[in-house]
User: Which sequence fits this backbone?
């Protein structure tokens, strides 16, 4: 299974990417995320193993983001709780890839995949209120802020979360009788 966009290829997470994930999931990248960097590669291995199990169970879709042409690693994207009517989108990209709109492109492709393959009411996209770059992703896709709350991340840091809801695109029909 893979999802393609203009510049990106999203493929299921696998141990192939363990070292690059461990290397690129840094404190700077995770400043506003719920997850925190792994203290050692064994924690990354555990995350990958758990992610693969959740994919097999049909509860999560955890993907690695690659540049289509070169297969360069860009980051990871996820669609969590896919067995519910309100799945949650998540993404991180390595620091050197920031500013290229890869996150927007990856989430847009993942949302399109969800519209074709999942039955849901809306997709949730929680993001720290201070993370302006990440907030632009759901806003570019028509997401609306539905709720705000504080959440403590895995490192004990308080996140001031705004949660966007992204609804399915309305498909128009060109054969409407007036």
Assistant:
């Amino acid at each position: 299974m893979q999802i393609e966009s203009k510049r990106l290829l999203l493929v299921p997470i696998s141990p192939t990417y363990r070292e690059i994930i461990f290397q690129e999931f840094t404190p700077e990248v995770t400043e506003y995320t719920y997850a925190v960097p792994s203290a050692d590669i064994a924690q990354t291995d555990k995350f990958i193993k758990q992610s693969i199990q959740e994919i097999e169970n049909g509860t999560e879709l955890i993907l690695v983001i690659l540049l289509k042409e070169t297969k360069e690693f860009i980051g990871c994207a996820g669609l969590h709780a896919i067995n519910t009517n309100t799945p949650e989108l998540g993404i991180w990209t390595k620091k050197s890839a920031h500013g290229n709109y890869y996150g927007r492109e990856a989430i847009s492709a993942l949302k399109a995949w969800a519209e074709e393959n999942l039955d849901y009411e809306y997709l949730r996209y929680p993001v720290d209120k201070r993370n302006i770059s990440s907030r632009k992703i759901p806003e570019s896709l028509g997401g609306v802020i539905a709720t705000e709350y504080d959440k403590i991340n895995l490192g004990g840091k308080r996140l001031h979360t705004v949660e966007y809801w992204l609804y399915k695109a309305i498909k128009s029909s060109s054969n409407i009788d007036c």
Notes: The beta strands are 3-4, 8-12, 60-67, 73-80, 88-93, 123-128, 144-152, 158-166.
